[in-house]
Amino acid sequence: MSNTRFKWDKKGRRRIGISYAYLAPTLILMVILLMVPIIMVIRYSFFDNVIVNKNPVFVGLQNYKTVLTDKKFWEAVGHTLYFVIVSIIAHMIIGMAFALVLNTRYLSSTTKGIFRVLFALPWMFTASVIAILWRMLLDPNGVLNFFIQALHLSKQQVLFLASRDVALRSVTLINIWSGYPFYMISILAGLQGVSTDIYEASALDGANSVQTFLHVTIPSIKPILISLIMLDFVWTLQQFALIWMTTGGGPVNATETVSTYIYKYAFTKYQYSIASTGAVILLIVCTIIGIFYVKRQIAEE
């Protein structure tokens, strides 16, 4: 009996060892490309101007005090919250609407296929292509201004990306357009997984379309919606490329977000300690959301 158990333990350890051997290359890459930079950035946040200064001095929480008392940082936080919240709400509404259209039985399979391609098109473009496309559309001499003046909606050209009044809303609109397909595809997958028996039962109970949507459809795909909101919050919170390539955080910091704030301090002002501190604060927020997301996934399982 003991020899059999010994052989089994030996075989089990060998199997575990082989499993970790297969995982080793990925784990090593994750440590080098992910964990090491995170640890370095956290360390930089506790010193004075690192990299530029050959002998940085430990300053403790002074950098955090500097960032958290900076008016520009809180302006960036306000812009970021507007950008994130409006984007998430619009993504949810548009994604849900298009998913319901694609899930309806009143359209033929060919029509649904065409609509799927058209609706999912923004998701296929990279941030650079989206930025160039929308800069052309929103240019003072662009297509959108042409229609605005042709329809006599405004006598003057609208400076969508160069006016403090509308720049943030314009960038948010671009992000909404580029991000809603993720919601649409995910919600559509959830809708197709809902049993038709539930809808038939609700119809027999006399429920109308609105009641069916609120009391059958939404509860059935609620886990998907919560996961989408959490993921979108983290992704939109870290959105940088789209903002930087359209407005660069301007005009006069009108579209400055936490990500562009960090970038400017690092690569324009060369104050890497302040940039690292801002990055750590953003990391903490994303980590908290990530913990809630993981707990939610575990609870569902």
From TrEMBL:
Family statement: Belongs to the binding-protein-dependent transport system permease family.
Matching InterPro entries: MetI-like (IPR000515), MetI-like_sf (IPR035906)
Designated name of the protein: Sugar ABC transporter permease
Localization of this protein: Cell membrane
Record's keyword terms, sorted: Cell membrane, Membrane, Transmembrane, Transmembrane helix, Transport
Transmembrane intervals: 20-46, 81-102, 114-137, 174-193, 213-235, 272-294
ABC transmembrane type-1 domain sequence ranges: 77-293
Family matches, as Pfam families: BPD_transp_1
Domain of life of the source: Bacteria
GO CC annotation terms, alphabetical: plasma membrane
SUPFAM superfamilies named in the record: MetI-like
Membrane topology category: Multi-pass membrane protein
Organism per entry: Porcincola intestinalis
GO aspect biological process, one term: transmembrane transport
Principal location: membrane
Keyword ATP-binding: no
